[in-house]
Amino acid sequence: VDVICLEMPDGQSVLPTLLPVAPLRLTCQELILSRQRIGDPGCATACGFVRAWGSRLQIIRLLECDLGDVGASCIARLVSNRLQPAVGLRELNLSANRIGDRGAADIADALPMLDSLERLLLERNRIGLVGAKALGVRLPRSNVRELVLGSHLGGNPLGPQGVKALASALDDYMPRAASDRATRLGALSLEDCDVGQQGAEALAEYLPKSCLQVLSLARGNIGDSGAEAILNALPKTLASLDLAGNGLSDVSGSAVGDAFYRMPQLAVSLAQNHLSPALRLILTEEHGTRLRV
Prior knowledge:
Blueprint: E1 3-6, E2 17-20, H1 22-25, E3 30-32, H2 39-50, E4 59-61, H3 69-79, E5 91-93, H4 101-110, E6 119-121, H5 129-138, E7 146-150, H6 159-167, H7 176-179, E8 187-190, H8 196-206, E9 214-216, H9 223-231, E10 240-242, H10 250-262, E11 267-269, H11 277-287, E12 291-292
Parallel strand pairs: 3-4, 4-5, 5-6, 6-7, 7-8, 8-9, 9-10, 10-11, 11-12
Antiparallel strand pairs: 1-2
């Protein structure tokens, strides 16, 4: 059998879903079915097909597969099987689907069992406040180093309160007994996640306690006040900050200039903002390729 035909219930799909199973036999370490609209039924079938070797999975990529909360829950059950958890899983990419709060919460509940998971990509889904809260609670008890909830292609409707709930996961000063993890988040992408000024201020509260190296808040509606709060709270480890498309003025531009002097390794993007030509010229001449305007 190379293809499984899944008939959708009436009204859900005009054409049956075709699940190619031949690629799943090629390796016991990958589950990759990107850009194949298998939906939740196809995801459940694929998870059942690979369950026998689920503990050996290292990469799961199901981008643009039309997965909803049910599909995300199937993935969560597959990787967190108590008898055979996917302890070697390094990357979980479920970007560009229809996953909402319930699916995100199930994924979050699985994180403490995935000792090797370093990359979690959930951009372009429908995760809101409840899903963000679940991730905020579980992330400190995981080894995830890179969390992508938004990119230049789109984000999630977290909103300021969702970002605030997620911000506590940046606290690397948690007691060892509570966290029991050697690694913490190194990269956080919240592009197009409606961070807002309140969300930026919540992040600023925890940023000094973090070891972040990369932070992206592009197109987050944070404004000058939010940007200033972030720039005044940057951890010494940060190497890249993306503030593009936030309606920022020369006030934020000057604050970026000050940050450059404090942090010689820092690079910042202020593209698609409202800096004056004079300040753009000054910053570019002084800081060169460290600044993108």
